[in-house]
Amino acid sequence: MRNFTNFNDLGSVEKALEWAREVKQNPFADKQLGQDKTLLMIFFNSSLRTRLSTQKAAMNLGMNVIVLDINQGAWKLESERGVIMDGDKPEHILEAIPVMGSYCDVIGVRAFASLTNKKEDYNETILQQFIDYSGKPVFSMEAATRHPLQSYADLVTIDEYKTKERPKVVLTWAPHPRALPQAVANSFAEWMNATDFEFVITHPKGYELSPEFVGSATVEYSQEKAFEGADFIYAKNWSVFNDNEYGSVTNIDRSWMVDSQKMSLTNRAKFMHCLPVRRNMIVSDSVIEGEDSIVIQQAANRVVSAQAVLREILKSNL
Ligand code: SN0
Q1: Distance 45 CA to ligand 1 centre (A)
Q2: Domains of the chain (ranges plus CATH)?
Q3: Nearest CA to ligand 1 atom 9
Q4: Which of 51, 180, 186 to mutate to test the pocket of ligand 1 (most atoms within 8 A of CB)?
Q5: How far is the CA of 202 from the centre of ligand 1 (A)?
Q6: Which end of the chain, N or C, is surrounded by fewer C-beta atoms within 10 Å?
Q7: Residue 58 in 3-state DSSP?
Q8: What is the pLDDT of residues 20-62, one digit of tens each?
């Protein structure tokens, strides 16, 4: 594996779970692998879990880690070619990327969707520039269309908590005051479609995800119907994907919040969310604090997914 940006780079659910088990059973087994190797993490957006869990994973593998928050102290980067740089962006990404590449062995990139230019977002313009110009293996720490380290941790978490071979997993849209990317939902759908779980997506009309990610999932517009018999409820907000209203918030219908009454329709489902989560918008206090909430365990598995991915990148590239 050279780069890790989506499920296909890994290619197999069985392999993903096997690697995760290995890493979890013996986190320090590969401490020599990363010796004298440097991970550079580049953040164009905020982070808590990704930053800490990826650094921890790299340290478990014996790597050195450098973190750069582009918005805190770095030069503002121009990313278009051909522009006269007489504005507020002193450095071009086409110089910045190879320079960054020269200081490290592996690069992690967080670059959320702009939500203003759908074509650039869905072409993964920023992430692709890192792949093309850094000269180093690159992995996504949430890019415009996907959050694969999160989805990998989600898969591991569901595997650990499932009580039947083919659980019913429901991805539900929930209301949010701001416009958020579709990345977490897209990516979760991509990984769930790779399993043989029963997978249902529920959202208000107008919030359809890209067909490329919906894949073979069942789309159910009645949230209550979708919840019936569910074993896992995965809540997430996303903004509109369709061309005309791309990136906008057309609905903050609070009746879509996940509460105890809705959870009572399920097969005592586990509650999941990638975090950060806005309480009493997305989910009620009682559900997120309840016995069936596994959001903390889910976040803890972020170390496992990051370590499995980094280990594989180190093994196959260095
Ligand atoms: C990001 C998203 O893609 O939805 C990251 C999730 C891991 N979430 C946010 O930006 C939440 C910000 C907010 O205002 O609640």
Answers
A1: 10
A2: 7-146+302-317 (3.40.50.1370), 148-298 (3.40.50.1370)
A3: 180
A4: 180
A5: 19
A6: C
A7: helix
A8: 999 999 999 999 999 999 999 999 999 999 999 999 999 999 9
